[in-house]
């Protein structure tokens, strides 16, 4: 039996300032985080698996329209939604991921189907959508994914002909969860709508095992949010695991080196949620804020936004 059950979630990092947030909006974000945390923790508490817990937490975040994943996904350059997701289990090191998918309500469940039923790790675009339909996953029309806030951001980005990292105050919109269950198994899941006004089928770090998502029972589970290009180049999630496995660093030490030193040196902004095999939680970020929450068997839930 594991000594502790733990879960940590995030809803994106970036320039998230108290000065630009209304109390009502802050309360909505906090409610969305709390809901997702509760969904995942309830599974762990009943002795459920870490894979079920991270999937449930991410589904909750995908269904909540303020976060850039699932229902609240941003618009790409041609006014469509292209979503990416990944899930990984620490006991078998199996992973499933999808990129550039449209129409599927919960990309994380499609990623899980890839992991469990496809014999592959990463499926993209129409092929991934076709596979999801064959697996009986729920799809929705474009109206389901439409939110006024995202539409306005896209129109603004089109006017200025730029790729936006989520909205004008530079928030890296990704959601994710990491967990340790009673059996001592770790899991991680990440889901994103990517960048507003993105072109050419751009894919970030979220669906790439080792870059934006990683789980290994020997070390830790990681879900990242940030400037995907830099997280891809730095293979952030795997790097933290390697520092623990090969150098014997603690989760905190490994996270600090990668997030506050290595990423900063190459201009990589963002953060991550992490849990190690002992149930220790870290939620480091080098941006102004990160939507985040965590709970372990030994403590009260934490829901945080700012530094």
Notes on the protein architecture:
This protein is of the alpha+beta class and 307 residues long. The protein is built from nine helices and 13 strands. Strand 3, helix 3 and strand 4 form a beta-alpha-beta unit. The radius of gyration is 17 Å and the shape is globular.
List the keywords.
307 residues; 13 strands; alpha+beta; nine-stranded mixed beta sheet; Glutamine Phosphoribosylpyrophosphate, subunit 1, domain 1; 9 helices
Count of distinct structural domains? 1
Q: Please state the second-level CATH architecture.
A: 4-Layer Sandwich
Helical residues, percent: 25-40%
User: Can you tell me the overall shape?
Assistant: globular
Mean pLDDT over the full residue set:
94
CATH-derived topology: Glutamine Phosphoribosylpyrophosphate, subunit 1, domain 1
Secondary structure class reads alpha+beta
Low-confidence stretches: none
Strand content: 15-25%
N-to-C SSE series? EHHEEHEHHHEEEEEHHHEEEE
Radius of gyration (CA) equals 17 Å
DSSP, total strands: 13
Question: What order do the helices and strands come in, and which of them pair?
Answer:
Layout lengths: L5 E9 L8 H23 L4 H14 L19 E7 L5 E7 L5 H11 L4 E3 H10 L7 H4 L2 H13 L10 E2 L1 E7 L5 E7 L20 E3 L4 E7 L1 H7 L1 H12 L3 H15 L4 E7 L4 E2 L6 E8 L5 E5 L1
Parallel strand pairs: 3-4
Antiparallel strand pairs: 1-5, 1-6, 1-12, 2-3, 2-7, 6-7, 8-9, 9-10, 10-11, 12-13
